[in-house]
Each structure stands twice: as C-alpha cells, then as structure tokens.
C-alpha cells in the first residue's frame, strides 16, 4: 500500500507536515493547502474518499450541462478554458498518441501514456484565482538545463510519478486534478499509448508516415489516418462519461492528430455514436500547417464525415471571420443533420486563437437552447 496515497478516508495524511514554524496554519490543513484537501466546510464527503474522487474538483457552473470535450493540445486547452465556465460537470477525454518532446521521452523510457496533452488539459481546468493560476504555471513549467531534465515539463513528471506510485492511470490524474483544484476531470481516450499512421500526399505521390510528430512535420496534405494498435482498449471512465453526457464537443484542435483519433477507438466510437448527448463540432480558426494546409471549414467537416460516416452532429460552431462561403458551410453542417452557428469566438487581436470568454458565452447560449 502506498502510504499517503490511499484512496479512502485519511488519504491526504501523507501530505501533512505539522504546525507551521511561523505560527500560521498547520501545514496539511485545508487552510494551508488550498482547495480540495481538508474536511469540507459544506459537510460533504472528506476529500480522498471514493465519493469525493469523482469528476467535480473545483467549483463548476450551477445549472449547466454535463459536458465531455474531446481533443488534445492547444485546441482542447482553448475548449476547456471556456467550458469550465459554463459546464456543471466537465470531462476532458484526451488523445494519447504524442511521441515528441518530454512526452515522447517518458513514453519511450518508462512505457507510460504520453502525459503532455493530459497535463495541458489539467492546466486549462485550473481556476482564475491565485491557487489556480499558480498551479497552472507550475505544471506547464519546463526545465532549462544542459542535462537530462532539459525540456521536461513539471506536470509531466508529477503525473508519471503518481502513475508509478498508484499503479492506476485514472487515479493518478484524479489526484493531480484535486491538487490543482481543477474544474473538471481529465481522462485518456485509451488505456494504452497509441501511434498515428498517416497517408500524406505531396505532388501526387502518397507516402505513409508513423507517429504524431511525423504526421505534423511531413510536407504535404494528410489524406487519412489510422491507429496502431488498430483496436485499442478505451478508457472505461471515458466511455461512461460520453454515455452520460448532455453535450459532447469535438474540437477545435489538430484535426487528424487530436480530433479524429477518438473515432477510431472502437468502444469510444460506439459510445459517441450511441450517446443521447447532443454533439457540437467547434471548427478551427485557421488551417494547420503540415496537416490541413489549404483546408476550408467545410473541408474539415468533409474529412470528419469520411472517418465517421454515420456520426450525427447537432451544431457546427465557426467563427464569423472564417466562413467565407456560409451557404456551403451550412450545407456541410446539414450533411450531419446539424445546423451552423456563426459567432465571434476568436481573439480580438486577429490571431488564430479562441478567446475563452467569448467562446464560453456562445457555448452557454447554445447549451441553454431547448431541443
């Protein structure tokens, strides 16, 4: 048994260090530790119990829907930064195919899931108070050195350390989420690390590349992708979250390496098709160099249709500045059985980034509409 990391009552005891030397709050108490550890003032279950380990870690929007957001990297970060403001229960289901940088090194050396996209999702769910901002910056911090730590993100090491201590991927992520006071839960889409295989076309020639980094950096346009292993096991908690959600959000994000892979994990794909949740596709603000060069918004939807021909979508959300041909985009949305919503969701400085507050406002309006 890992002392101090048990999942039952008193689990947090391993973090208590005794009275503060300055006469302040005792280290390890709720006052000293910030949100999510000591006895709860509201009379709810003690943090560390099975009841408290569920998806709700930080304060979440009262009366909002249960939302599952799919993706990875910066696109999912943008989505979660908005959704945590309007969802009553939020779950991020994250791709696990990264093979570059710190994540790739940890994956190869330790045989673990690549933690980088999971870390970014947790950072996005941090609150706007001092606790949340500080921990968001800490887990995103990368070491700069001449040694082996160079390039490693603090959050990656923290996540992997908890995985090794607990022997449980989901429990480890839940622990990090509680430490950060995350406004939601982060889950991997699969319980095993994956490789993305892509067909890339350049000047009429098609080549096959393997690995997320190769997919992103190989010149040409990605035509199709597949996963290795071909039938990976889904994270059971992710499947359950999708089945019980009110809304499922696809995108924004790297279309071939962050969004589409969720539809290639059999159990997860089945849940995404069968769920009673409404489905929303949030389109990117610009094509991604090396992956979707030259893609129009409707081309993104065409590719989604090619990889998931039976998927139904209720809403396609696009920024007003990217819909050059509204009629064609409306037709593409209708092809999924959905409707197009155009709204200003980009940063006001003109950069191809989503503004969290603007996106949250639009999503909240959509969520409040009756079926």
From TrEMBL:
<dbReference type="InterPro" id="IPR038136">
    <property type="entry name" value="CofD-like_dom_sf"/>
</dbReference>
<dbReference type="InterPro" id="IPR010119">
    <property type="entry name" value="Gluconeogen_factor"/>
</dbReference>
<comment type="function">
    <text>Required for morphogenesis under gluconeogenic growth conditions.</text>
</comment>
<dbReference type="GO" id="GO:0043743">
    <property type="term" value="F:LPPG:FO 2-phospho-L-lactate transferase activity"/>
</dbReference>
<dbReference type="InterPro" id="IPR002882">
    <property type="entry name" value="CofD"/>
</dbReference>
<keyword id="KW-0963">Cytoplasm</keyword>
<feature type="region of interest" description="Disordered">
    <location>
        <begin position="1"/>
        <end position="65"/>
    </location>
</feature>
<dbReference type="GO" id="GO:0008360">
    <property type="term" value="P:regulation of cell shape"/>
</dbReference>
<dbReference type="Pfam" id="PF01933">
    <property type="entry name" value="CofD"/>
</dbReference>
<protein>
    <recommendedName>
        <fullName>Putative gluconeogenesis factor</fullName>
    </recommendedName>
</protein>
<dbReference type="GO" id="GO:0005737">
    <property type="term" value="C:cytoplasm"/>
</dbReference>
<comment type="similarity">
    <text>Belongs to the gluconeogenesis factor family.</text>
</comment>
């Amino acid at each position: 048994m890992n002392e101090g990391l048990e999942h039952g009552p008193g689990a947090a005891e391993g973090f208590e260090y005794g009275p503060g030397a300055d006469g302040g709050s005792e280290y390890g108490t709720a006052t000293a530790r910030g949100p999510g550890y000591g006895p709860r003032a509201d009379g709810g279950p003690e943090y560390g119990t099975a009841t408290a380990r569920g998806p709700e870690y930080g304060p979440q929007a009262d009366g909002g829907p249960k939302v599952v957001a799919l993706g990875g990297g910066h696109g999912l970060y943008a989505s979660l930064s908005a959704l945590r403001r309007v969802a009553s229960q939020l779950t991020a289901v994250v791709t696990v195919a990264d093979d570059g940088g710190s994540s790739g090194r940890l994956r190869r050396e330790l045989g673990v899931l690549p933690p980088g996209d999971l870390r970014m999702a947790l950072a996005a769910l941090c609150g706007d108070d001092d606790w949340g901002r500080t921990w968001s910056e800490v887990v995103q911090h990368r070491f700069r050195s001449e040694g082996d730590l160079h390039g490693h993100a603090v959050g990656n090491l923290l996540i992997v350390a908890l995985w090794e201590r607990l022997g449980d991927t989901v429990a480890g992520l839940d622990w990090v989420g509680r430490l950060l006071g995350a406004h939601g839960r982060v889950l991997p889409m699969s319980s095993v690390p994956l490789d993305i295989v892509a067909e890339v076309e350049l000047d009429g020639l098609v080549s096959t590349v393997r690995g997320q980094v190769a997919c992103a950096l190989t010149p040409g346009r990605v035509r199709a992708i597949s996963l290795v292993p071909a039938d990976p096991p889904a994270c059971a908690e992710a499947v359950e979250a999708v089945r019980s959600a009110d809304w499922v959000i696809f995108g924004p994000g790297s279309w071939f390496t962050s969004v589409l892979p969720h539809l290639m994990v059999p159990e997860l794909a089945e849940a995404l098709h069968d769920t009673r949740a409404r489905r929303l596709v949030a389109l990117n603000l610009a094509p991604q160099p090396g992956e979707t060069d030259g893609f129009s918004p409707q081309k993104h939807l065409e590719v989604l249709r090619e990889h998931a021909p039976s998927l139904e979508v209720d809403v396609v959300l696009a920024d007003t500045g990217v819909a050059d041909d509204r009629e064609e985009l409306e037709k593409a949305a209708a092809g999924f059985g959905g409707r197009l919503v155009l709204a200003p969701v980009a940063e006001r400085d003109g950069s191809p980034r989503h503004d969290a507050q603007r996106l949250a406002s639009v999503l909240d309006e959509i969520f409040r509409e009756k079926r």
